[in-house]
Design the sequence.
């Protein structure tokens, strides 16, 4: 039977215990572990009517912040997996 454990991470420091628990559970169940890094960027109301260029700049900044968060979370995942070996 194929088993999968999913964990959603949103902050690199706060979600450490959830990640460690998910790794432990996946090992006990001999399951596949999916780690989903999720970041939410709210668009300010004034940007909705702005020109496409302004929106693109706002999206680019949001993408950089999201990519940075995902990199931190992936490093945290690697650390937790190493500790659990």
Sequence:
């Amino acid at each position: 039977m194929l088993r999968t454990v999913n964990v959603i991470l949103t902050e690199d420091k706060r979600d450490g215990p959830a990640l460690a628990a998910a790794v432990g559970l996946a090992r006990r169940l001999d399951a596949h572990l999916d780690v989903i890094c999720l970041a939410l960027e709210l668009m300010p109301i004034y940007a909705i009517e702005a020109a496409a260029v302004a929106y693109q700049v706002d999206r680019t900044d949001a993408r950089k912040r999201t990519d940075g968060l995902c990199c931190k979370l992936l490093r945290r995942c690697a650390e937790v997996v190493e500790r659990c070996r």
Summary: The chain has a mean pLDDT of 74. The chain has one domain: 4-84.
